[in-house]
Design a protein that fits this description.
By secondary structure, the protein is mostly helical. It is elongated, with a radius of gyration of 20 Å. The chain has one domain (3-127). 84% of the residues lie in helices and 0% in strands. It starts with a helix and ends with a helix. It has helices at residues 3-20, 26-33, 37-43, 46-63, 72-127.
Length: 128
């Protein structure tokens, strides 16, 4: 096994999880989601996003000869899928560890929406 692929798996896993799940990229996810429904699906799915990030990082690795490819393009394609498989395995414990934070974030968001709805109903009743 190429040790470089392990590093790339870790990097892709971290990058895609950070972009697709954490609050730091929430505003970017909202903007991308408004462009097209498929982009919304892509930007919220760490595994889906990992295909593109894997391709990008492995391409950079190939261009700068960080990841050697003795068998050319076919080996490159296999490595993309190998990285994606590893990333899928790595995402599971990351998502489980982050689950309480996501639940709390969802609870707060739902509470805020409920308060806004109550305020809107109250404003409508006052207007009548």
């Amino acid at each position: 096994m190429k040790l470089e692929l392990l590093y790339i798996m870790l990097a892709v896993s971290s990058i895609t999880f950070t972009i697709a799940v954490t609050s730091i990229f929430e505003s970017i996810r909202v903007r991308v989601s408004n462009i097209h429904p498929k982009l919304e699906e892509l930007i919220h799915c760490p595994y889906c996003l990992s295909a593109y990030v894997s391709f990008l990082l492995l391409s950079i690795g190939w261009i700068f000869n960080i990841v050697p490819y003795t068998h050319g393009f076919i080996e490159f394609i296999f490595d993309i899928f190998a990285v994606m498989a590893g990333v899928g395995i790595l995402h599971y414990p990351i998502l489980r560890a982050y689950e309480p934070i996501l639940r709390e974030h969802a609870r707060k968001k739902l509470l805020k929406q409920q308060q806004e709805l109550k305020q809107s109903i109250s404003d409508d009743e006052k207007a009548l």
